[in-house]
Specification:
Length: 173
């Protein structure tokens, strides 16, 4: 099974955050989906303006991919992931969730992506983004702080060899 595409952008420190976050988001697919093709493209870098986002999300959707974009300040990557932007194609329309937070359960399980102001969240089962119609009942702020801490610890184990396996994201025109 091929892995989900991770397009890296920026410097090695930014890329380590993206690889670490993807690892911590990854859950286990339900048995009936194990043979399916991965359908999520992960990227990182500056915040995407609407035009760049639309072009990237449209191209990804044509290939059967959703997008998870980790926003990391190129000038201050040590601040970590500042925002998560999702682009999902559903029923022929591209949906943009532009203000999302990573959230971690207290038990150390797979992290979730929480769109701001909505009652839904998204899980990543290693193949696809799964929409969950309700949020966890615990405090969002506490889970966001746990997620930031976990990602910061996880970046220590991302090797240069692992970073070299991923594809650079082309610079926007």
């Amino acid at each position: 099974m091929k892995s989900n595409t991770l397009h890296l952008n920026g410097n090695a420190e930014m890329n380590r955050y993206a690889v670490a976050a993807k690892r911590l988001l990854t859950g286990v697919p339900e048995p009936e989906f194990v043979g399916d093709k991965p359908s999520v493209l992960f990227s990182n870098g500056r915040d995407l303006d609407l035009r760049t986002f639309t072009a990237l999300a449209t191209a990804a959707a044509k290939s059967g991919y959703d997008i998870v974009h980790f926003v990391i300040d190129e000038k201050r990557p040590e601040r970590g992931i500042q925002n998560v932007v999702l682009g999902l194609e559903r029923d022929g329309a591209i949906h943009r969730y532009s203000q999302c937070t990573l959230w971690s359960p207290a038990d150390g399980g797979s992290m979730l992506i929480m769109p701001q102001g909505l009652k839904i969240c998204f899980a990543f089962d290693g193949l696809a983004l799964i929409s969950i119609d309700q949020r966890p009942v615990t405090a969002i702020g506490d889970g966001a702080m746990r997620a930031r801490s976990r990602v910061r610890r996880e970046i220590e184990s991302v090797s240069d060899a692992e970073l070299a396996r991923f594809v650079p994201l082309p610079k926007a025109a």
